[in-house]
Amino acid sequence: MDVNEVLLPGVGLRYEFTNSDRKRIGIVARRSGDFEVIDYSDTDPDEGRRLFRLTPEEADTVAEILGAPRIAQRFADLTKEVPGLSAGQITVPAISSHANQPLGHTRARTLTGASIVAVVRGEDVIASPTPDELLRPGDVLVVIGTHDGINGVRAIIES
20 to 30 Å CA-CA from 42: which of 51, 74, 132, 135? Predict the structure, then answer.
């Protein structure tokens, strides 16, 4: 399926696709973190109608239901419009001193300024993990921050 991505300066990103019923659907990922799901008129391709809005928490729940691993890509896309901000993915190696330890044990945010915003574990996503979340070997951490901050988290997790 082809997804068209459109940058909306000052607003966020809009993703558009045509579903199997030949209906054009749009999802606006706002800078505020909210999402809007819209559909388009059959007669006027520029006329969009908001179907509903999702808070960040609701969007995370929908993402978990529909395809949890895609959450990392969404963060990466949202960081495109913020200069100096990046998204990265770090896999927890089995030999890490932080494997089977709580996330808070890493002190990653304090030491690097970068935030671990999700943990992808197989097909599951733990969005906004708490400091008590145990990191398991093979977990993929979704990190938002500067390049240096993300590399700092990588060094911590791989130690």
Answer: 74
Q: Range of 121's domain?
A: 86-157
Helix axes 56-67, 71-78, angle to 10 degrees: 140
Whose CA is closest to 36, among 47, 21, 49, 22?
49
Domain co-membership, 90 together with 46? no
Residue 144 lies in a domain: yes
Sheet order of strands, 124-127 included = 86-91, 140-145, 115-121, 124-127
The number of folded domains in the chain is: 2
Asked if residue 131 is part of any domain, the answer here is yes
The CATH number for 136's domain is: 3.30.70.1450
Domain for residue 68, yes or no? no
Tell me if 78 sits within 8 A of 141, measured CB to CB.
Answer: no
Q: Which of helix, strand or coil describes residue 25? A: strand
